[in-house]
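User: For my dataset I need records formatted as: sequence, then structure tokens, nothing else. Please produce one.
Assistant:
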Amino acid sequence: MVRESLRRTLANFIDPSLKTYNKFAQAFYGLTGIPLQLYQVGSETYIDKGYLYNPVVFSVIKAISEKSKSIPYTIKKVKDANALKMMYNIKDITKPQLQIKRGLLQTKAFEEKLFEMPMERPNPLQSWADVIALYQTFIFATGNFYMYILKGDFDSIPLQVYVLPAHMMQIVLKEGSNVMGMESPIDHYVLTEGQKYIEFKAEEVIHLKEPNPDYGMNGEHLYGLSRLRAALRNIQSSNEAIDNNNRTLLNSGAFGFITGKGVPLSPEQADAMKSRLQEMRADKSALGQISGASAELNFTRISATTDELKPFDYLMFDEKQICNVLGWDNKLLNNDQGAKYDNIENAERRVLVNTIMPSLKSWDDMMTQVFLPMFKGYDGTVYEHDISELPEMQIDMGTMVGWLTIARSDGAINLNEYRSALRYPTSDDPNMDIHTVKDDIIPLSEALMQDFNRNEPTQI
């Protein structure tokens, strides 16, 4: 309310016909720290004012990228495409029965042989973990990720891979191209830094992006939509609250006018008093904070106190909004409100399943459909991140064994499938592939025959 009232008051100083501010309003605006314009929408703002400047944005995106680095991935060859499709249809693996079902389908979908990454390192300066961390950083901050594929002169096999700075990239369309045509309208990409321009051919760059409904005939929709765009005002509000807190600490909360009591101060007296106050601030000695005046003085405060502004309430509100657009839980940001052990455990599992993995799925699809096929012998392989082994996804072993025991006793799964669900290696013994029931460990066909004979009427 205080800020809005101040905005309306200052608006009275604007001359709408001249589109200018009078000098008093302009000076007053600068002193109160209220900006005349909101942050400019754009990738550079999301990086400079968001990820590199705002502690909430940095903390959330950094946590996402660091967790993504720790998630193991595998490269496998597809054995059963239908089983693979059914496996991908299971989204929620937090429930024991669904996790077991997905594990069994995974065993049927892939061959047991694992493939190594065709390139041990993407480039001399980075690891694949670094690239994945940068992917998550740029995707969540700007909505875009650009990967440059350096190839040889005589073949199409990639030699090195580099991450391009998403906030410095521009898409250049083909002349006279149709953004809704049969072919890609992209002619090339340009990396712009100051007055320097570096051009990359369209086939040399893999561009991943967030869906963008902001359609435009000039190709605006070819860029990904940043999640931070919706929270840009909260980012600015959070930054200003922190800056205002620093200013308050520097001036000890004092902001106003010193006036003479009964007799106005002359310009010379006012300047001398201002100079003395500046000297007192610069002097760090104990006596340097003591001064005197030859007349009675009044102080008129024109700023709201921190108790009136309640900046920490605004900071908490902005933190929640930023976390919401990034798909994060603010209880994971060292927030004491509701941050109990069970809540933290559930929050970690929720952001892993609902935020981190959907983003990594786009990376997995790109590696499967675009990158791996560039290498000989990798046709039909699938790149997949697997979170089932992470501590956050470990369900109670007793619960899982209970589900598996019931399924095996009813003949729904065999002993090898039982072992696969527990992540144990399967056995070569053919009897382990036979479906059995109860504790007798007899084939299902014999058990059914015994039940049939048991129900037959006795002949006399």
